[in-house]
Amino acid sequence: MARPDELVFAPLGGVGEIGMNLSIYGLGNRHQRAWLAVDLGVSFGDEEHLPGIDLIMPDISFLEKERKNLMGLVLTHAHEDHFGAIIDLWPKLQCPIYATKFSAALFEAKCAAERNAPNIPVTVIPSGGRVDVGPFNVEFIPVAHSIPEAHALAIHTEAGTVLHTGDWKIDPTPTLGAPTDEKRLRELGEEGVLALIGDSTNAVRDGRSPSEAEVARTIIDLVKSAKGRVAVTTFASNVARIKAVAEAAKAADREVVVVGRAMERVVQVARETGYLDGVQNFRSPEVYGHLPQDKVLALCTGSQGEPRAALARIANDDHPEITLNRGDSVIFSSRTIPGNEKAVGSIINNLVLQGVEIITDRDHLVHVSGHPRRDELRDLISWVKPQLLIPVHGEALHLHEHAKLARAAGVPRVLVCRNGDLVKLGPGDPGIVGEVPSGRLYKDGTILEDSKSRAVVERRRMAFSGCAFVAIAMTGQGELADDPEVDLVGIPEKNRAGETFDDIVFDAVMSTIEGLPKARRRDSDALAESVRRAVRAVINEHWGKKPPCLVHVLTV
């Protein structure tokens, strides 16, 4: 009898980290499998460790090799960490994409705003609908989250059903869209779920995530009691929060001015897809200065401290239309993503210096997470009754705590894996059975680089210790044709004794050249290496750092 096809899972991003989500499911045997990809997201560069890198994307070299077996890419929702890499990476895959209406519309708007974006077709699937993608039958199950039309995916195969949760929470009173479909999830549990691949973001937090309805009430109270101008910043994709801010403005007899391209784009898509039906029209930034101070509310991008976003420009007092003064208020209706604390703190401090009142989730319930806390994780396990649980979408601590909770909740098998692990889900005993290539790609300007890229590595070193440049002109007889040129970038002007580094390095270059035998002076490579070593050593002696050193030898 022929052996049944195996169902396997491999995360290529989003495990051991928050962001850059890409999961793949394979059906077949180890010689040939059909593959299904779920999400294709980014995470964001950190100027301290990755200077100049805007976005980080998963390495898709494995999928490129398996391109003829890649049946399609299915999107759980339209957050950047789940769909932000598609424009850059889809041309390497060219597979069908499946998404629901709002996600497809937001992606289309994103492509329209991008210069030279490829034409990427998306097949729209209704919320709650199903689609056959090769041997996978994928069902879109509505879940509550901080963006419209988030879905868990029930991936039905002949080897069993997997529930891939995507980002979700249980919110019995969402202000926009359907609540998490408990009825359908319970039905799946009765039908039998082989594996639950689950969001771990809030696995360290007890209790339940509060509801969007509670945030909406708080924002109404704060806006009604405000005296001067009010600015609210939140994630542009959080349409429920945008709607809550609009209702608060209406209750306080204020006009909403939308500030920032990302916010404008989401508002346009939300109106086109019916999610802002009945909500008043918003105004453009040009009218802001003409409205009375107690009649305006600015809805701004920049909640994460992005330097080019609206709020950073307002805080630096260099926005062409929007200003804030003493007595005005800014509501941060968001939580700072780890890594962005310094940038957000800088904006808050600049606003405080201008006399602006700052309101954050430390003072009032102006933000709730879109991810499940521990009681919600337990609820889902009790509804779905999975035979196996694999925690994803979290750092090591989140995965560990989710796994511990699942074991305590009676899940028969719990498995923690890493990016690149190939996990057999069934039939038979689950386990890690191999590895697939995984890693990171860096978006550097308009170029995609791998993590070992010379530019990325060298820029990090230069950010730490500057760079030394030396140009030497030699005759064919091994004599100096002219004085060496020394250029030091990002290196202190003087050492502790007050001697200039230009002189220190120049002297080191001269003494190195003079100390070499003529045969080595006539060898450009040997001369350059000797000077490079000497320059790094002398700078280290006087400064305690070894900068990169580039030596150019010209024979005249």
UniProtKB/TrEMBL annotation:
A Pfam family reported for this protein in Swiss-Prot or TrEMBL: RMMBL
CDD domains in UniProt: RNaseJ_MBL-fold (cd07714)
Listed GO MF terms: exonuclease activity; metal ion binding; RNA binding
Residue ranges of every copy of the Metallo-beta-lactamase domain listed in the record: 21-219
Entry-linked InterPro entries: Metallo-B-lactamas, RibonucZ/Hydroxyglut_hydro, RMMBL, RNase_J, RNase_J_2, RNase_J_b_CASP, RNase_J_C
The protein's name in its UniProt record: RNase J family beta-CASP ribonuclease
Family annotation (SUPFAM superfamilies): Metallo-hydrolase/oxidoreductase
Species of origin: Bradyrhizobium cajani
Key words of the record: Cytoplasm, Exonuclease, Hydrolase, Metal-binding, Nuclease, RNA-binding, Zinc
Gene3D superfamilies from the UniProt entry: 3.10.20.580, Metallo-hydrolase/oxidoreductase, Ribonuclease Z/Hydroxyacylglutathione hydrolase-like
Residue ranges the record marks as coiled coil: none
